[in-house]
Amino acid sequence: MAGANTSLDAEKIRQDFPVVTSSINGKPMVYLDSANTSQKPVAVIDAMTAFMREGYAPINRSAYSLAAEATEKYEGARTKVAKFINAKSSREIVFTKNATEALNLIAYSWGRTNLKRGDVVVLTHMEHHANIVPWQMLQQEIGIELRWVPLTSDFQLDLSSLSNLLAGAKVFSFTSMSNVLGTINPVEKLCAAAHAVGALAIVDACQSVPHAPTDVQAWGADFTMFSSHKMCGPSGVGVLWGREALLEAMPPFLGGGNMISEVRLDGFKCAELPAKFEAGTPPITEVIGLGAAVDYLNGIGMANVRRHEVEMSSYVLENLTARFGDEITIHGPRNPELRGATFSFAFRGIHPHDLSQILDQTNVCVRAGHHCAKPLMKIIGANATARASFYLYNTKADADALANALDSASDIF
Amino acid sequence: MPGVEDLYREIILDHYRTPRNRGELPPPAVCTEGNNPLCGDDIRIFLDIADGVVRDVKFSGQGCSISQSSTSMMTVAIKGKPVEEVRALVRRFKHMMTLSDDEGAVDESIKLGDIEALGGVVKFPVRIKCATLGWNTLLEGLNSSQG
Ligand SMILES: Cc1ncc(COP(=O)(O)O)c(C=O)c1O
Q1: How far is CA A294 from the centre of its chain?
Q2: How many CA atoms lie within 13 A of A109 on its CB side?
Q3: A181, A209 Cβ separation under 8 angstroms
Q4: What does the pLDDT average to over A336-365?
Q5: Nearest-CA neighbor of A155 among A10, A318, A343?
Q6: Which ligand 1 atom is at minimum distance from the Cα of A130?
Q7: What is the pLDDT of residue A411?
Q8: From atom 15 of ligand 1, which residue's Cα is the shortest distance away?
Q9: How many CB atoms lie within 10 A of CB A223?
Q10: What is the dihedral of CA A263, A264, A268, A270, to 10 degrees?
Q11: What is the least distance, in Å, from the CA of B40 to any CA of chain A?
């Protein structure tokens, strides 16, 4: 049995995910695009459906008990998320639309208050556009300077000149794991390096929170963010975590209902955290779905998820290399302990778009393109790559299906 | 689900393997660059236009089999043609790709020849952008070369 000798029973877990066990035209689904967005377990689907069928109501606004219960469920999800990443308090958890909005919130609200012309923000060459463009917008607007931590030849961050790059910096914002290379970065060390020069440490944790235990206090980070849809939860909700003192000192991002404590004709007063950053009616059902996703992942155990993915990585790396040798180029670290189970690759000179089209014939779902990391793509010398990413519901059989489908792709070209 | 044989017709693969008019033209030829933001493909079209005629055309850049072969076939079809005919051909092609543009009526009698083979792309909506990348870039080039 696939899964029998791994740290969690992926065969059993698969059964919780309707799309993962579905088939098209009689051929089973091989879903290998979880770095993009993950599939949803029945527990999440049911929690959202049940809320909409039986408990739907506004939050924070009405005295009737249906609304009070909805508020309790919504705030309950906040507490679950806070515990999940070991935040000091649930007041430090802000629900946004997605991680992208959270990064924009920081750049807009913290950045415009605290940065001035010539101030330095340090990023890395492996960032997602979401952690590049908001800073470039500030660069255009107020003339901050952007510096970049380069890569080594084995797809790690090149930290040899980090102290030079960080000298005088106000912000160091970096990903905990590359969504293209799979590289896992030394988050604690990078946060410490930022703090050593008095810079803020911002961790884009989109690719690590769904896949491994997270402890923002152990990281020593100042802000982090991630998206529900990559961690078995619904789309439409993201999480911003920030140290309370920082969030407290920041001006609001969006203005409107829910984020105020007082509005008069001559001005307004902000609500307390975290409502201050949650203007308007939030995605209530989705937040409750995220809470259910956190429960689901806790039930499996994030350490087990991580171990499973290390095992999947070993298997994928060994098998693809053994089978295809030089015909496949994997852009990322070879050591499964240093990477997540996300593999960008080039195969037999076939363009990734064509490759993913052919894999689709056997329902093998991989992403083709630049993965919202165009600067990184340029650095690794590829316009586009195919990317297969594995999660807790993927088995060795999925990895074999990928290899078989790849092999058949060259018949056409 | 439509089969990939509808997509990867032999003539398409032929243009992919052996692209025609690949290369660059020196100024004063007009160079226009087009990107497919979805997949990172990019294409450059070089147009030498004089007296309302496309006297020469070349293309460079990277892309998938569909964008490369579509552009290659396009260059063959437009080389030596009057600009007005080229524009009518672009409209005809985009119409086949189920895209309309506001630039004028489609002349259904225009023969597409080999380009007809790209008709299967319509069954794969995500790839329509690949097939039209070169054509849209061409349009931009035509517009800018006419000041
Ligand atoms: C590393 C990283 N950062 C940010 C994002 C943006 O996430 P979202 O599109 O959910 O806002 C992603 C998603 O692809 C990502 O992988």
Answers
A1: 14
A2: 21
A3: no
A4: 95
A5: A343
A6: 4
A7: 79
A8: A206
A9: 25
A10: -30
A11: 6
B61: nearest CA partner in chain A: A383
Mean pLDDT of A343-349: 96
- The number of C-alpha atoms within 13 Å of A318 and in the hemisphere containing its C-beta is 8
Strands in B30-36's sheet, in edge-to-edge order, are B30-36, B41-50, B53-62
pLDDT of A5 above 70 = no
Given a cut of 90, whether residue A266 has pLDDT beyond it is yes
Separation in Å, CA B31 to CA A152, B49, B90, B129: 36, 11, 18, 20
Contact criterion met (CB below 8 Å) for A353 and B64: yes
Tell me which chain B residues have a C-beta less than 8 angstroms from the C-beta of A357: 4, 7, 124, 127
Contact between residue B133 and residue B41 where contact means Cβ atoms under 8 Å apart: yes
- DSSP structure class, residue A68: H
Q: Which CATH number fits domain B4-146: 3.90.1010.10, 3.40.50.1370, 3.40.1360.10, 3.40.228.10?
A: 3.90.1010.10
Counting from 1 in the atom list of ligand 1, the atom nearest the Cα of A99 is: 11
Q: Could B66 and A377 be called an inter-chain contact, meaning their C-beta atoms sit closer than 8 Å?
A: no
Q: For ligand 1, which residues put their CB under 6 angstroms from it?
A: A 98-100, 128, 130-131, 175, 179, 204, 206-207, 227, 238, 372
* pLDDT exceeds 90 at position A97: yes
Task: Give residue limits of the domains in chain B.
Answer: 4-146
3-state helix, strand, coil in chain A (%, to 5): 45, 20, 35
Contact list in A for residue B40 (CB cut-off 8 A) is: 369-370, 374, 377, 383-384
Instruction: Indicate the top mutation candidate among A227, A229, A374 to test ligand 1's pocket, ranked by most ligand atoms within 8 A of CB.
Output: A227
Reference B70, options B43, B50, B48; nearest CA is: B43
**Contact A249/A239 with Cβ under 8 angstroms?**
no
Could you tell me the two tokens for A3? 């899964």
Domains present along chain A, CATH in parentheses: 10-40+301-409 (3.90.1150.10), 46-299 (3.40.640.10)
CA distance A349 to chain B (A): 11
| Ligand 1 centroid, distance to A125 Cα (angstroms) | 15
Q: Look at residue A413 in the predicted model and tell me its pLDDT.
A: 79
> Which two structure tokens, joined as six digits, stand for A360?
């689709």
CA distance A184 to A182: 6
Q: Rounded to an integer, what distance in angstroms lies between the CA atom of residue A125 and that of residue A371?
A: 14
- Tokens representing residue A129 in the block: 């556009």
Cα-based torsion angle of the residue sequence A190, A193, A195, A199 in order, rounded to the nearest 10 degrees = -80
Contacts of B130 in chain A (CB under 8 A): 353
Q: Quote the tokens at residue A272.
A: 């307390």
Cβ contacts (< 8 Å) between B65 and chain A: which residues? 351, 353-354, 413
Residues facing residue A122 across a β-bridge? A147, A172
Reading the block at residue A209, the tokens are 């929170």
Give the single-character DSSP code of A339.
B
Alpha helices for A30-91 (secondary structure H): 42-50, 65-84
Output the CA A398–ligand 1 centroid distance in Å: 24
What's the mean pLDDT when you consider all of chain A?
Answer: 96
- Averaged pLDDT, A210-216: 98
